[in-house]
Amino acid sequence: GKLTRIVSNCISLEERDLVRAFYEASQAGVEIDLIVRGFCCLRPRVKSMSERIRVVSVIGRFLEHSRILFFANGQNDPIDGEFMIGSADLMYRNLLGRIETMSPIDSRPAKERLWEILDTMLSDRRSLWEMQSDGTYVQAQPRTQHEQEGTHRRLMALTKVRHAEDLARIQEAEAQAQTQTEDETSGDNGL
Q1: Nearest Cα to Cα of residue 91 among 16, 23, 15
Q2: Which helix H or strand E contains 71, and what residues bound it?
Q3: Is 104 strand, coil or helix?
Q4: Are 150 and 126 in contact (CB under 8 A)?
Q5: Mutual angle of helices 108-122 and 150-189, in 10-degree steps
Q6: Predicted pLDDT at 42
Q7: Could you report the per-residue pLDDT of 149-168, keeping only the tens digit for each?
Q8: How far apart are CA 125 and CA 74, in angstroms?
């Protein structure tokens, strides 16, 4: 069979038809990870109803506002799946009472970045709380020193690395341009 998986990152989940659709997808064998920062009206891991649904909340240094949807669509490599970003939470008022937008993401580098965010959040063992079938939450516990980092610290570190790499490229380009200008200038003096 082809890989079927849904990952959603949002602030809140309460729209009834969408909750029912997640239940139906779970019952059909789809693995579903929901990263829900605020309230969630779906009950995960309920036998014969939502056994394949995991609901987590990442609570940390920053108030999370990203809205990312991922669909594996039969692809083993997540980057080959379908990504969407948008402004709407999965709530009745946002989906049916307002004009909100969701956009597909086709750029491979953008998909890589989005998957990095989702994967970082789902593998968090420091700031992640997992909803139980009774609606209570249990905080994940770090098992190693590396797992002490948490989502927000990890994303900040990745951003610093990216900016350092970007800065190095800019400085290298500026140095090359300066060298070229000096070479051109010294060539003019010899005429």
Answers
A1: 15
A2: strand 68-71
A3: strand
A4: yes
A5: 150
A6: 96
A7: 888 888 888 888 888 888 88
A8: 28
